[in-house]
Amino acid sequence: MTFSDLLRLVSDQPLFETGFLLAGDLDPADARRQLSRWTRSGKIVQLRRSVYTLSRPYRRVEPHPFLIANSLVRPSYVSLQSALAYHGLIPEHVAVVTSVARARPGRRTTPLGEFDFRHLRFGLFFGFRPIEVVAEQVALVAFPEKALLDLAALTPGGDEAGFLEGLRLQNLERLDRDRLARFAAEARSPKLRRAAVVLQRLTEREAEEYEEL
């Protein structure tokens, strides 16, 4: 396989995997040697084992950070501050993409950015969905209600009013109160049930303040 062959196969893909290249008649050992050679020469970028993207100027499609995050650690989904910013619930721009995963926590540093992963126990690994974050790029992202509960679960005192008020949450009308209560119940965690109660009160307070305007 030549580099021109690779470009014909993946130039329109934000990311590609070794398994995709081996689906044809290519010799696996030869394909891996070529990938290592192109990585060393700077023609492609390795994000993790078996996951690559083309280097500029060969890359026609920029991979969305959420797509990269999903690919770095599996299973995982974007949550916490990144999901809250995506849904418009916090005002801050989040430079490092934050996700939760079944794997051990840690930070992954790549040429395309930094990505934080927090460990979430099995019973809390729900409340996310595939979202088309940009055209033809789909990533797993927490519902806004679950992103808040994940943050509460992973933060000491995360169920306390002082912490949740300190997030400076905005656009709370976007929260689905029924979904929030359902997720808190499904988690089977007294801490998250308490957090849900506080969030419900914050939502009601914002609604009352809006009506007074």
Average pLDDT taken over every residue: 94
Q: Give helix and strand order, one letter per element, not per position.
A: HEHHEEHEHEEEEEHHHH
How many distinct helices?
Answer: 9
Radius of gyration: 21 Å
Output the strand order for the largest sheet.
4-5-7-6
Strand segment count: 9
Helical content stands at 40-55%
Overall 3D form: elongated
- The N- to C-terminal Cα distance equals 66 Å
Name the poorly predicted regions: none
Assess the beta-strand content as a share of residues: 15-25%
Secondary structure category: alpha+beta
Biggest pleated sheet: 4 strands, mixed
Characterise the protein shown here.
The protein is an alpha+beta fold and 213 residues long. The protein is 43% helix and 21% strand. The chain has a 4-stranded mixed β-sheet, sandwiched between helices. A hairpin with a 2-residue loop joins strand 8 and strand 9. The radius of gyration is 21 Å and the shape is elongated.
Question: Can I get a quick summary?
Answer:
This protein has helices at 3-10, 18-21, 28-40, 65-72, 80-86, 144-154, 161-166, 177-187, 190-212, and strands spanning 16-17, 44-48, 51-54, 76-78, 97-101, 106-110, 113-119, 128-134, 137-142. With 213 residues, the protein is of the alpha+beta class.
